[in-house]
Design goal:
Number of domains: 1
Order of helices and strands: HHHH
Strand content: under 5%
Radius of gyration: 17 Å
Shape: elongated
Distance between the termini: 9 Å
Length: 101
């Protein structure tokens, strides 16, 4: 179950990075003075910030999954993972029992 939670967390990080660069690619078709160009660049910046937030949360969650020895140590990061990173990954982290760690 630990591997499945990690996979869902990292898939979420990769998808957020892909979405950021999709908006960067979409903005290339507009002229720089256009309002749509500014909107696309702002979407790129927002998704890039979300990518780095997801990356930080995924690194912390992976560290906690690898180094924890009781379920009480993963509950806080599992809730944060569920809210900000991956719903399925957070639920899998919450459903782990002591033997999975």
């Amino acid at each position: 179950m630990k591997i499945a939670a990690s996979v869902f967390n990292w898939i979420s990080v990769v998808l957020m990075g892909i979405f950021a660069f999709i908006f960067l690619g979409l903005s290339a078709g507009y002229s720089k003075g256009n309002e749509a160009y500014i909107i696309m660049i702002s979407y790129f910046v927002i998704f890039l910030i979300l990518f780095f937030v997801d990356l930080i949360i995924a690194i912390i969650a992976q560290y906690k999954l690898n180094n924890s020895y009781c379920k009480a140590q993963i509950v806080p990061i599992a809730i944060v993972t569920m809210l900000f990173l991956s719903l399925i990954g957070g639920i899998l982290m919450l459903c782990m029992n002591e033997l999975d760690l």
